[in-house]
Amino acid sequence: MAKDNKNTKNTQYLTIKEEREIAKSNRKIMKQFERTKNRKNVDESEFTTQMHDPRNVIEIDNLHTYFYTDVGTTKAVNGVSFKIPEGKIVGVVGESGCGKSVTSLSVMQLVQGPVGQIVDGSIRYTTSEGKCYDIAKMPRDEMRRIRGKEIAMIFQEPMTSLNPVFKIGEQLDEALAIFEPKMSKEEVKARSIEMLEMVGIADQKKIYNNYPHELSGGMRQRVMIAMALICNPRLIIADEPTTALDVTIQAQILELLLEVKNKINGSIMLITHDLGVIAGMADYVVVMYAGKIVEAGDIHDIFKNPKHPYTVGLMRSLPSLSHVATGSRLYSIPGQVPSPVNLPDNCYFCNRCEYSFDICMEQYPPDYYFEDNHRAACFLYDEKYKDLDLVKPELPRNMADDSESKMVRKIPQGRVVLESETDRFGG
Amino acid sequence: MVKYILKRLGLAVIILLGVSLLIYMLTMAMPADYIDNQTAAAVQSGQMTPEDVLRLKELYGLADKSLPGILKGYALWFSNALQGDLGFSFLYGRPVTQVIKEYVWISFFISLIAYVIEIIIAIPMGIRAAVNQYSGYDYTVSVFSMMATALPSFFLAALLMNFFSINLGWFPLQGLTTATKIFHPSDTWGILLDKAWHLVLPIVTLTLLSIGGLMRYTRTNMLEVMNSDYIRTARAKGLPEKTVINKHAFRNTFIPLVTTLSGLLPGLFSGAMITETVFSIPGIGSMAMRATQQGDIPFVMGYNMYLAILTVIGYLISDLMYAVVDPRVQISK
Ligand SMILES: Nc1ncnc2c1ncn2[C@@H]1O[C@H](COP(=O)(O)OP(=O)(O)O)[C@@H](O)[C@H]1O
Ligand code: SF4
Ligand SMILES: [Mg+2]
């Protein structure tokens, strides 16, 4: 679809001529996309579609989101497919720069344009009215049917995500007021205050009249959660909601997320780079690497029986009690995520992978499926190479048994749903 | 609050002291002073001897140009200035304060109108350019505003005069009144209209000169705001794009705009030296220009002190406005 800037060859540096060519072709491509997105009065049939499985809230299918930068095309999201079933929490993990945020912003059509564009793929979503839309094809004007009311988002940076010049109350009220034009000012205010109470803010009336800078990071993130929930969305996207917070506050916020999810009976897409957070929260896990999904599956499969060398690497690099006990050094995966400009044709992980073998350098691995839709993109699991007796990645002994409970970021005092924790993860 | 203002004013006095000393020394160091200028022709034709010139210089306090002499002169000027006496202008033969008072209003009038037009045009343009970054509109407006900013004022004025007065004959070339027309003193409207007619081109010149800067300032600030996290939040909430831009983004861009623009307010009283001179408008700017050329030390000193005071007041207003428009800023010290 989009023209790849292959003329950059393997050189790191571009000549002025090459740069100008890139800029020129970028401008053309961006203009095309922007024009399509900005159309008014588009017939609904153009972006109406069918869910593949009606039990899903959202189905992301072969999503490609690129950034047309001056140094070439950044393939931030490069063929991502996963779904979120109703009422479930799907965790998306991966190191920084793997395309997690861009995936979530694509779902909201909030990718920073005109540079960033959804290039290919579909994002199927069924609204509460039962209509199924392809968000990837929705014109910008129509997106307002989805944002806030259907899908809400909580961002990583509570310090900068609230508008500094408006009071908390005003920012909460306006979110509700657009979707409930019939509500009176007092009703809207009452509901905002009720939401603040629901997210565990004690002094709601005072906070309602505060400016964001008068609150701490944890409080602001609570406000963000209240704002996200105020219109009863069916899907909440939480993009590293606790990364910027203190450890103790982190646990409280996660606990709050779980609690409110149960209250509104919605689904959550929980993005994090911390497997510990995922272990305590998610039902399904998606592991992303360099814009692609390298492994996905049920939480038990991922934690008890991880297949992809990258997933295993992530788990080994998680601090756990055993490290403290044995005094051993914390593992970290050597090397770095490759630049999403000029990605190679081989397995993107091969330069960091301990298990790589011949074929890994030649092509990108397809998905291999295991039981329960557990899948991993790694040649180690190709039947063709069975005879090679390849070593498969495994968790260290002490981690393998009951690994998820070891990795759970212990949510301290006041975790109300302790019993359900066992049944969530099957004991 | 009061304490803060007092502190700032105290600081201002120190700044003004330094500035005045510097200006005094610089004007004294100018190679040809007022007396040299006035007597050059007479000396050349032999009507005056160098001794006559020296006597005159002594009379005007310009004879001793050694450092102690300059400092002594400054001290005298300063002690008078403290009592509100800026001295007599050599050139205009009247108290400096009186000259300033008389000629400032026409300058203020021109600047004020240009300022208002500038705001009305530049801010919406800057916002629109930022919202449609990289669009044809953005490029056109940026190039145009850069061109207008880059042109020297006398050149732009000359261009306008040539085109609109000489070629098209729409507006008068110079001055403030039509010399060939005689108005009855009771014909207030006629006189006013005639004056307004003369002021169109100077105002256009001033507006064009400043519009580019303000437009780019608005655009830059708006772009920065548009890329911030809270704008993404506002969109994620489902707000219409109009609300996102006009409420969330603009209210934040408003802060630097208000503080900067209010800080410029006192500057409206300072006159536009070049533009006024080119158009022969009898404003404070062209008066100062002439005085500077002639080495009229009392006037130059008085005028520059006046400018320095305006600048200091501008900064003070600008600071105070921050506390008014930005809820994060509180002036407590
Ligand atoms: N606004 C942008 N312009 C250009 N490139 C971007 C932009 N936002 C993200 N990217 C690129 O997309 C890739 C994925 O980023 P992101 O989704 O933020 O990663 P993360 O997994 O840490 O959330 C990064 O390599 C980054 O370079
Ligand atoms: S395909 Fe090869 S290089 Fe890639 S993760 Fe699997 S073993 Fe490692
Ligand atoms: Mg991110």
Task: Write a structural description.
The complex is a heterodimer of chains A (427) and B (333). Chain A has helices at residues 16-38, 100-108, 168-179, 185-198, 204-208, 217-229, 247-264, 275-281, 299-304, 309-316, 321-326, 397-400, 403-407, 418-424, and strands spanning 56-69, 72-85, 89-93, 116-126, 132-134, 151-154, 235-239, 267-272, 284-289, 292-298, 368-369, 375-376. Chain A is an alpha/beta fold and 427 residues long. The model of chain A is unreliable at 1-10 and 409-427 (pLDDT under 50). Chain B has a domain at 97-291: Orthogonal Bundle (MetI-like fold), CATH 1.10.3720.10. In chain B, 74% of the residues lie in helices and 0% in strands. The model of chain B has no long low-confidence stretch (mean pLDDT 85). The N and C termini of chain B lie close together (7 Å). With 333 residues, chain B is mostly helical. Classes of the chains: A alpha/beta (427), B mainly alpha (333). The complex binds adenosine-5'-diphosphate (ADP), iron/sulfur cluster and magnesium ion. Adenosine-5'-diphosphate binds next to strand 1, strand 2 and helix 2 of chain A.
